[in-house]
Specification:
CATH class: Mainly Beta
Structural class: mainly beta
Helix content: 10-25%
Radius of gyration: 21 Å
Strand order of the largest sheet: 4-1-7-8
Number of strands: 8
Number of domains: 1
Distance between the termini: 66 Å
């Protein structure tokens, strides 16, 4: 019985020791919903994964409606912004360090514009 337990523990230790570690760098990805939102339902997806889903309004004094950040890996990614279930905007971006994306919306033309920065936006 002791030999069986010892064999199982040894096998588990060997499997754990031989496992490759994931060395993919992880960085901050910040998404700020900036100007011209007025009680709009906004969804933001990164690589088809939901990041934000809420009703937002921009502050006239700050120029900011909402801000969210997450950990993201280095490489090519896709951001999708859906506003009021009627406007959908999708764009590719590449991340090699901390990255901040500002989302702006023109309600009249239903246009979405992104501002990309390596530094956090100041409001």
């Amino acid at each position: 019985m002791k030999k069986n337990v010892l064999s199982i523990l040894t096998a588990a230790l060997l499997l754990t020791a031989c496992r490759k570690e994931d060395t993919t760098p992880v960085y901050t990805l910040g998404v700020d919903l900036q100007s011209n939102f007025a009680q709009d339902n906004v969804q933001v997806n990164i690589d088809n994964q939901p990041l934000l889903n809420r009703q937002v309004s921009s502050s006239l004094s700050l120029g900011l409606a909402s801000s969210v950040s997450t950990a993201n890996t280095s490489g090519s990614h896709t951001i999708q912004v859906i506003i009021n279930d009627s406007t959908t905007f999708t764009q590719q971006f590449t991340q090699h360090g901390d990255l901040y994306i500002g989302v702006n919306y023109n309600k009249e033309t239903k246009a979405v514009n992104l501002v990309v920065s390596r530094k956090r936006f100041s409001y």
